[in-house]
Amino acid sequence: MVVWIGIDDTDSKKGGCTTYVAYRLIDRLLDEGYSLIGFPRLVRLNPNIPWKTRGNGAVSFRIGRGKGKSITVGERDGREFPSFGYADNDVDLEHVKEIIEEILEEEAHLSDEATNPGYVITKEKPERELYERCVKSVVSLEDVLRVLRRIGAVYRGYKNGRGIIGATSAISWEPLDRTFEVITYRRKEMWGRKREVDERSVIEMDRSIRSTFDNYDYETKRILITPNSPCPVLFGIRGDDPFDLLRAKDMISSEDYAGWLLFETNQATDDHLERKKISDIKPYESVIVKGLVDRDPFVIEGGHVIFRIRDDTSSIDCTAYEPTKSFRNIVRKLRRGDVVEVYGGVRSEPFTINIEKIRIERLARLVVKVENPVCERCKIHMKSIGKGKGYRGRRCGAVKGEEDARYEELERGIRIGFYEVPPSARRHLSKPLKRLNVPP
Ligand code: ATP
């Protein structure tokens, strides 16, 4: 028998990390004779909800008494974490509950106003539909509690109990697409100090292990595998192949770390996106929407670039924010009449799509007049009669139409195809073009 455990909302902006709580918890459960079944899971939920701490990530994992062969999916202070394919024997839920509460109360940032931890222990997995809703929209705690009561789960929410939403949804994820992330954890005495990770080793790893992604931003020359917060994570490497990630981890020259854990994740899958018509789009959703550009891009204070698209139902603004850097140069070249498909999260105030990537489907032909027609009799350029009214010979008075002037097609400077924000501006859930198998 396998028992699912889910946890969420244990950290604050000042530190902590839900994956670290899971790592500590797994270590402790191994001490108690339980085994990990399968990979632990790091599940990203709706990236647009306002009350997330950072990346809206929750964690789930399975425990049991493992049987058969195992692989190593983590390590803490020299002790390996084996993971088994299947399990037998019962798990004492009350005992597991005590251990979870002990670790959670020790590690969670309970005194922070915005931290509302929750955990769930269940033998029955909630339906995937809950994950679908939680990654795409806003889910109420009442809805989740109803699901938990129906499946007979053991659970607890601290403070406002909101963490239960993410904890349950993380268990309900069943991958249709998935990636992996190996996360290393710093020694406690190093928490909050500058992270020592050698830039050259990151670039070398990025270039040699091709199944990894988003390791380094070559445009801004920034290491992306280290977080910016004072949390216990030293670095996290993402990729398609779990075993490549272990090799990748060993290629990084860094300060000594206490341990690591390998997660199966929904990162880089585009699971949050839903194809929509503009009139159906609501705040906090993430959408794929196709439309005709009907207002040319313009730049607002802060360097954000905005344009508008419309379909047969309505119109909506789309924004490439300043952190998307050179991606804005592409967006700035769009013009009225272009047909695009925009991928992104929906903000409520102002109501706009925060663009994650864009597919330019058709570029409008833009022409400019370079010369008025020449009059055959006068032998010189004719004079415009007025906008859209044609031309008249300066001496003889002969008339010609607008179409007789000489036009040139404008060089657009962009091509049809996919464009994405640079890795430094990418959302956890956004699928990089590298994974979409389209040439960048
Ligand atoms: P980190 O990624 O660093 O762990 P975080 O960004 O995940 O932090 P949390 O502290 O987990 O932020 O806060 C997110 C909160 O929002 C959790 O309490 C979670 O249960 C809740 N939540 C997540 N998704 C939804 C959703 N779709 N609807 C309603 N509440 C949600």
Using DSSP, what is the number of strands?
24
- Known CATH architecture of the largest domain: 2-Layer Sandwich
Mean pLDDT: 95
- What is the approximate shape? elongated
Q: Largest sheet, if any?
A: 10 strands, mixed
- Report the radius of gyration as a whole number of Å: 28 Å
For the record, give the distance between the C-alpha atoms at the N and C termini, rounded to a whole number: 46 Å
* Class derived from helix and strand content: alpha+beta
Number of domains: 4
Annotation field: number of helices: 9
CATH topology (level 3) name of the largest domain: Alpha-Beta Plaits
Poorly predicted runs are: none
Portion of residues within helices: 10-25%
What compounds sit in this structure? Answer: adenosine-5'-triphosphate
Portion of residues in beta strands equals 35-45%
User: Which CATH class of the largest domain is shown?
Assistant: Alpha Beta
Describe this structure in words.
The protein is α+β, with helices and mostly antiparallel strands. The protein has four domains: 3-172, Alpha-Beta Plaits (2-Layer Sandwich), CATH 3.30.70.2200; 179-265, Glycinamide Ribonucleotide Synthetase, Chain A, domain 4; 273-365 and 413-436, OB fold (Dihydrolipoamide Acetyltransferase, E2P) (Beta Barrel), CATH 2.40.50; 367-409, no CATH class. Helices cover 20% and strands 36% of the residues. The chain contains nine helices and 24 strands. The chain has helices at residues 18-31, 93-107, 128-136, 141-150, 163-172, 199-208, 242-251, 327-331, 433-436, and strands at residues 3-8, 35-44, 57-76, 79-88, 118-122, 154-157, 179-186, 212-213, 216-217, 222-223, 233-239, 257-265, 273-275, 286-300, 304-310, 315-320, 339-347, 352-362, 367-371, 383-386, 390-392, 399-400, 406-409, 417-420. Strands 1, 2, 3, 4, 5, 6, 7, 8, 11 and 12 form a ten-stranded mixed sheet that branches. Strands 14-15-16-18-17 form a five-stranded mixed barrel. Strands 20-21-22 form a three-stranded antiparallel sheet, with no helix packed on it. A hairpin with a 2-residue loop joins β3 (57-76) and β4. α1 crosses α2 (93-107), α3 packs across α5 (163-172) and α4 crosses α5 (163-172). The longest helix has 15 residues, at 93-107. It is elongated. It starts with a strand and ends with a helix. The model has no long low-confidence stretch (mean pLDDT 95). The structure holds adenosine-5'-triphosphate. Adenosine-5'-triphosphate (ATP) binds at residues 8-9, 11, 17-18, 45-46, 49, 51-57, 116, 134, 138-139, 162-163, 165-166.
